[in-house]
Every structure is written in C-alpha cells, then in structure tokens.
Write a structure and sequence with these properties.
Blueprint lengths: L2 H15 L6 H9 L2 H4 L11 E3 L5 E8 L2 E8 L4 E4 L3 H12 L11 E7 L2 E6 L2 E6 L4 E4 L9 E3 L5 E6 L2 E6 L5 E3 L8 E3 L9 E2 L11 E3 L5 E8 L5 E6 L9 E6 L10 E8 L5 E3 L10 E4 L5 E6 L6 E8 L5 E8 L8 E4 L5 E6 L6 E6 L4 E4 L6 E9 L4 E7 L10 E7 L6 E2 L6 E6 L5 E8 L2 E9 L5 E7 L3 H5 L6 E6 L6 E7 L10 E6 L13 H6 L2 H5 L4 E6 L8 H5 L10 H13 L3 E11 L1 H12 L4 E7 L11 H7 L5 H6 L11 E7 L8 H12 L5 E5 L8 H18 L13
Parallel strand pairs: 39-40, 39-41, 41-42, 42-43, 43-44
Antiparallel strand pairs: 1-2, 2-3, 3-4, 5-6, 6-7, 7-8, 9-10, 10-11, 11-12, 13-16, 14-18, 15-16, 16-19, 17-18, 19-20, 21-22, 22-23, 23-24, 25-26, 26-27, 27-28, 29-30, 30-31, 31-32, 33-34, 34-35, 35-36, 37-38, 38-40
Length: 749
C-alpha cells in the first residue's frame, strides 16, 4: 500500500513529462494522414504531369478537386488556360461507345497526347482512341497494338522475330522469312534479353519469351544480344499464394550474387540485313550488358562498356561495315563510377555526358572528330539531368542542385548554358524545388515548384529568361489546413568529419506539445544511389511520416555522408563501407536532443525498407545502445546474397572481407533492443533468404526477436498486405518504444 503514492507520482510524471499513450482518436488521425488517404481525396494537384503538343504551341494537363477531374491546356501564344475539350460531350460519347455510365468529373484518360491542335490521343476502358476536336468523332486504334515479340524496321519492310532461340526477319511485302542466326539453342539465345527479376515456374521451366533487338535508323542493320545462360545459377522462392494449391509452387530465377562467375552473360551482335552477315562482339561479352545505341550515321553504334566493378567506363564508336571499334572516351576511378550518362545530340560531332570525374557531377562535351573533352558546366554543385540540347544555338537546358548560395543543396533548379560554358542562366529563381518539363522546341517549360513546407504551384515559363507567363494550377490544401497539419521542418547537423553540413527533416504530431518529451523514429534509406531529404511537397507527404508521428513520435529523415546528390568526396564515404552510413544519423539525433528539450534520445527507433531494411537491422546491431527498436522490411541483410551489380557498385569487386564486416548476419550477437524483421515470401528483388539467415543467426545467438513473413508478397507490399504491415509497424513502435498498449481493431482505409 505504501507504494501507491509513489506509483501515482510516477504515473503523473509519465503523463506530464512524456508523450502519452495513443488513444483511438490518435490512430484515427494517423490513418487520415496516410499518403493514400490524402492524395486526390483531401489534397489535390501536388504533382501534375504535362503533355506537350509536338509543335510546342500548347501543353495539356489534368487538375482535380473535390468535384472531380478536369482536362486543361495552356496556349503558349495566348498565354491562357482553357479546357482541352468539351468534357461533358466526350464523357457522353465514351459512355455510349463503351456502354458505361461514367460521371463527367470521373472521366479518366490515360497516356493523353496532343497530336495537333485538332486531335488528341488517349486510353480509357482498356482501349486507345483518337478524338477529332472539331467533329468529336472517335477512332479506336487499340487493335493496332504491336506484338512485343516482333519489331518492325523503320522503313516498314521487315519484321524481326525470334524462333527456336534464333533470330529471323520476315518481309512485309511477300511474307518471306530469312533466318539470320543459326547457332542459337536453349540457354544460348539470340534476340533475347535477361530480366533479372523474371520468374520461372519449377526448376526446369522456360523463361518468359523476350525479344530485344534494335534496328538502325536506315533499316540496314539489326543489333541484338546473345543471352548466354549455360552456366548461370538460380535463386529460388516458394509461392504459397495460390489458394487452391496445397503444395507451394517452386519459383526460380537467374541471379548472380557479388563475386559469382556462374552468371548470365550478354554478347552484343550485329547483323547486316542485306547479306545476313553476323558479327559477334566477343570482347564485350559481360555480365553487365554493354549498351549500344545507333547514331544518325549509317551503320554506326555508340557502345558503352562498364566492366565489372564499375570503376571504368569505355565509350566506343563501332562501325558495322568494317567491324572497327574505336575508343572515344575512357574514365576510371579508385572508387566507383555511379553517375555517368551520355547523350547523343542533333549535332553528329558532339556527344554530351555527365560525370563526377572532377569532384562534382557536371556536364561535359566530347568532340567526336578529335576525341577532346571539355566541361560545359563547372562548379561545386550537382547536375541532375540534361533536359535538351539545341544544336542550332548550342544551348543546353539542365537541372541542378546546390548551386544557389544559402539554399538547401537538395533543391533543384533549371538552367540554360551555352556549350562553351558561358551565359549560365538561372531559369527558376524562387527558393523552392523545381520539377520541370521542357517543350519540344525548347522555348517554354512547365514548372512544379514547391518544397517540404510549401505546397505546389505549377506555372508556364519562357526559357529565354525564366519569366513566368501564366499559372497553370496550384495545390489545393484546404482540407489539410483544417486537419491542422504542421509541415515538416528542415534542420542541419554536422557530419562525422566535424565540418560537413548534413540536412534532414522533422515531422511532429499535429497536437505537438513542446513541454513533453517524444521518442524519435529515424526513417532510413542510406543506399548510396539516392537521398532522403523531402525536397518537394509530394515527397514530404509521400513518406506518410506524419501519420506515424500522430501516434506520439518525432519522425526524422537525414542524409548522412555517403549518400547521393552531393560531391563525389561526400559520396565516396560509403564506398566499401556501407555499414557506417548510420553514424551520421546517430550524431544528428544526439545533436537534436541537445537543441530541443522535447526530443528524447534515450528512446530512439528506426525503420526502413530494402536497403533501408538493411539499415534498420544494422542500427540495432551496430549501435545497440542507441537504437532501441527497429522494423526492418525486405532488407538485404548480407550483401553477398544480393543481386550482383548493386553491392559490386558500392562495396567493390572482387568480394573481400568488407562484405563480411558490414553483414547484419555476422553481427547478430550484438542485439539488445527489439527487432521486427519482415519480408515478402516471393521477393525476387531482395531474396528473403537473407532475412531467414538473419533469423537463424539470431536464434543461434539466443536473441529474442520478431519476424513477419508475408508469403504472397514481392519486394513491395500491396493492398491489404501493406495495410497489415503498416499496422504491425505502428504498433511495434507504440508497444516497444512508447511503452504503451497498442490498438489493433482500426481500419487503415
């Protein structure tokens, strides 16, 4: 009895000093903030897409509000927005044609294209149509869908196809067939390609049929590959998802792991259509298929070779007639080459490419006549993409991040520049993120500008100056405002080197009380090919982190050293060292705890999927005294069991001891906190074997853990399975991080 006052006092302290246990209203609010329950239900127009007319005179797009969907176009000369068509009239026309009863506001048109000022093309009801806007006459063209196992030549005279593992062409004029290859057989297959996720039923079942060929623009040559599976090994899955089967189906797929040599090999091949001559490029036979793209010169290919290990790039010019292969460009790195991409241009003498070779991802031009390379852009910023090159004016349009002083380095802007590096012009001046599309003639661009705390505003600009011509639409967030949503807050921290600024975001509950202390949950994905900062409004909502925060947590996302979209030196930190990627997260959370009294750094959780699943598992094993609770879904817990290319890109090749050192499986004995490992039973991307091996290691180490297998799910979880996983994830943190009794009987929808 004497303990009661102490218990009462302690309980009072818990209520006043810490975030309270969630009640049903908190769960209801959390559900309401899930991304799927927000977009096009309570918030609209946060990421509209645009379709340009071929002559650049107009751009079409779709908007939504509570009344439904509207189809609009912006006339660039008039600088006005108007209906794309009479929506009520078209809805009635389609209802009559397809025998349905769609409401005007519910009209859904896919793959919408403006063919010209009088005609549009779209798909609906599983069919493709063109509409004459003058007469409102419909023409169904869905029956003209091409056969994916045939490829017609540009001049229309030949159809390429594969049969009995060899390649053939058929004349469209008389139907005569010519056999191009004769050496193909099962597992040595001409005209095929290898899909690294293709599933085969049974041990000896057939692969799904493929055709992978590329006609030269003049139809005189055909480029393809020999898909060589003779020594390739498989991975396996058991599929329990068929309700009428009481024995699991065995599924297999060809997959090499890091360091393997018994893998699928691809050999480029070229055929002369006139003579039938076959030329195999045996020197380019590799597990990483050398890409081949036709130039505008007859019988010439640009070939990009990435030798295994991703520390070299070779660009060749290949002449089909002579068989001569000329090296155009070579690049090598002591770490990896991750951001190389080349672009052919309308000027046959110029090839453009992006590279990090000088410390930042920048644009370069390669003069093909003398093989000289010169920078187009130069500076301490990151070029994201080349949008367009105007051969006449020698002007490039591109997007980049981190150039504008004093701004968040993940915010993207659009620029133009002359190919000689002069006249760099910022086209999107607002301190926001800009997702743009450029017109075919390069004179106009659409711009979805937003940030993590600024809803999207979509405008039309001229590319000469960046001047805004007309507003196209804007995000409708009135319902969000009624829900008292507090947008994510950006923060900075200092990285492990003591000097590099890191960037992250914080999601707080909408009923946030600064007098309380909240547990922290780290949403993680430190895969070096990307970043987590929510630079636009779509990604700020898309993570559904606000939903989790509503249950009484502070949710954060931060990009530590070793991730993408910063300098090459920043990126290199994770090379052969991905296990250390979470160190900056620990430092950032500790820093936040010092700055904000409402952050409780004694209660830190973490969750992530795929590479983030590896992170979440790694967190409670590598930092067991810091991270207390983890939910690791579809994690690649040992990179030696992954697909070959991804670990070899970031952990190096050949495989060495670093793979063992960063493996979650070898660290199982370190577990102190609570760990839930989750996997889809038929995940052909990240095979569930790594999760099972981690479970086995945890059992051998006598560690208590939890495991959830979703037998019918692939790498991502869909429908009710994703809803179930969401509930399990939420409640795992409620129970083990918040220390409260979770609620189960609530609906995600």
């Amino acid at each position: 009895m004497k303990r009661f006052p102490l218990l009462t006092a302690f309980s009072s302290l818990l209520v006043t000093g810490f975030s309270q246990a969630p009640v049903r209203a908190d769960y209801h609010r959390a559900v309401s903030f899930l991304f799927g329950n927000l977009v096009n239900r309570k918030v609209y127009n946060i990421n509209p897409s645009f379709s340009w007319m071929e002559d650049s005179s107009a751009v079409a797009y779709t908007t939504m509000d509570s009344a439904g969907r509207k189809y609009l176009k912006a006339d660039v000369k008039k600088q006005v927005v108007e209906p794309l068509f009479d929506q009520e009239r078209l809805t009635k026309l389609l209802n009559d044609s397809l025998h349905r009863n769609t409401k005007t506001g519910d009209l859904l048109l896919g793959n919408l294209k403006l063919l010209n000022k009088n005609s549009i093309e779209f798909e609906t009801g599983g069919k493709k149509f063109t509409l004459d806007l003058r007469t409102y006459s419909l023409e169904k063209i869905a029956d003209n869908i091409s056969n994916p196992l045939e490829e017609k030549s540009p001049d229309g005279k030949w159809i390429a196809f594969a049969k009995d593992y060899n390649l053939f062409v058929k004349s469209t004029s008389d139907g005569s067939v010519r056999q191009l290859s004769t050496g193909g057989f099962k597992n040595y297959e001409y005209g095929s390609w290898y899909g690294w996720g293709e599933l085969i039923e049974g041990e000896n079942g057939d692969r799904p049929p493929h055709l992978g060929v590329s006609w030269s623009p003049d139809s005189k040559w055909l480029q393809t590959y020999i898909c060589d599976l003779r020594i390739a090994k498989k991975m396996y899955l058991l599929d329990w998802s068929v309700d009428t089967l009481y024995r699991a189906r065995l599924l297999s797929y060809y997959r090499g792991s890091p360091g393997d040599t018994d893998m699928v090999y691809m050999t480029p091949v070229v055929f002369n259509i006139a003579t039938g001559k076959e030329t195999k490029m045996d020197a380019l036979r590799n597990v990483n298929a050398a890409s081949a793209d036709w130039t505008k010169q007859s019988g010439q290919l640009i070939i990009e070779e990435r030798p295994r290990g991703y520390q070299q790039i070779n660009l060749y010019l290949y002449d089909c007639a002579s068989g001569k292969q000329e090296l155009l460009y070579h690049e090598s790195s002591n770490t990896n080459i991750d951001n190389f991409r080349y672009f052919q241009t309308d000027d046959p003498s110029i090839l453009l490419f992006t590279s990090e070779k000088d410390g930042w991802k920048q644009l370069y031009q390669l003069q093909l006549n003398n093989k000289t390379v010169s920078p187009v852009t130069n500076g301490q910023y990151y070029v994201n993409d080349l949008l367009r090159f105007d051969a006449k004016s020698k002007t490039l349009f591109f997007t980049a991040s981190g150039r504008e002083t004093g701004r968040n380095p993940y915010l993207q802007h659009a620029y133009s520049i002359h190919i000689d590096g002069k006249n760099l012009t910022l086209l999107t001046s607002e301190d926001l993120n800009h997702d743009v599309s450029i017109s075919p003639d390069g004179k106009w661009l659409t711009d979805n500008m937003s940030s993590w705390n600024q809803p999207t505003r979509s405008v039309l600009r001229e590319t000469k100056t960046g001047r805004v011509l007309v507003e196209l639409t804007h995000a409708d967030v009135r319902e969000l405002e009624k829900m008292k949503l507090s947008y994510p807050e950006a923060f900075t921290s200092i990285g492990r080197d003591g000097s590099t600024t890191l960037y992250g975001a914080i999601w707080k509950p909408s009923n946030f009380d600064p007098s309380k202390k909240y547990p922290v949950i780290d949403q993680t994905y430190t895969g070096p090919h990307t970043f987590m900062f929510p630079r636009n409004f779509f990604s700020a909502l898309g993570r559904s982190n606000q939903a989790l925060a509503e249950l009484g947590f502070i949710v954060i996302a931060v990009d530590g050293m070793g991730t993408a979209n910063r300098s090459k030196a920043f990126h290199n930190v994770s090379y052969k060292n991905m296990g250390s990627n979470l160190l900056d997260h620990v430092l950032a959370i500790r820093d936040l705890g010092k700055r904000f009294t409402w952050i409780d750094t004694t209660r830190v959780g973490i969750f992530g999927h795929s590479a983030g699943g590896y992170d979440a598992g790694h967190a409670v094993l590598a930092f067991p005294d810091f991270y207390k609770v983890a939910v690791a879904s579809s994690g690649d817990h040992d990179f030696r069991m992954e697909k070959d290319w991804w670990p070899e890109m970031y952990m190096g090749w050949p495989v060495d001891s670093s793979y063992n050192e960063v493996s979650n499986i070898t660290m199982a004995k370190n577990l102190k906190g609570k760990l839930l490992i989750v996997h889809g039973g038929i995940d052909e991307n990240v095979n569930p074997s790594a999760t099972f091996k981690l479970a086995e290691a945890l059992v051998k180490a006598d560690k208590e853990f939890d495991m959830l297998i979703l037998p019918s799910q692939h790498h991502g979880y869909s429908g009710k399975y994703n809803d179930y996983f969401t509930k399990r994830k939420w409640n795992y943190f409620v129970q083990h991080l918040l220390g409260a009794t979770p609620i189960w009987d609530f609906s995600i929808q």
